[in-house]
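Model it.
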Amino acid sequence: MATPGPGAPCAGTSRPTSSTNCVPSEGELRMIYRYVVERKLRNAFAALNRGDHGPVLASFGPQVEHVFFGDHALAGARHHMDSIEPWYARLRRVLPDLRFDIESIVVRGMPWNTVALVEWRDQFSLKNGARRGNQGVHALRLKWGKVVSLRVYCDTQVLAGVLREQHALGVADAGLAPIVDAA
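Modeled.
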């Protein structure tokens, strides 16, 4: 069987070849990689929307930074799974029906050093049934498919107010000190 020359379609496609053996070009590989990372991020947010933080926890590398800015029960910096896992459990207790709607995702870099930004809006109910929402951005750094840094940027004034309301309505976790790494 003859190998197509440059510019001829690869077998089974109408895509022109970038070489004589239908190997994707570097630009095509980058596009595929960005697509894979974006799908993984969308799937992680879909899991959170289902109340399942397991896939998110599994995405973290052994050395990780997990930061949520502000002065409230969800704030603080964590670097170990023994503080990150309880943080997600607390998130579920204080905002049990939290749902994210992704506005956009931007992915740059290669597998050894990737930056991704996820712009979102969220919705949730207070214990008394009142609906609230916020907006923000997750800034992530990945290395070889694992998250090594997650920083959450949102309207922390809105969130702090929501947590005060939840605490006043009897959600004890909403009034606790932030979960941070043990000293």
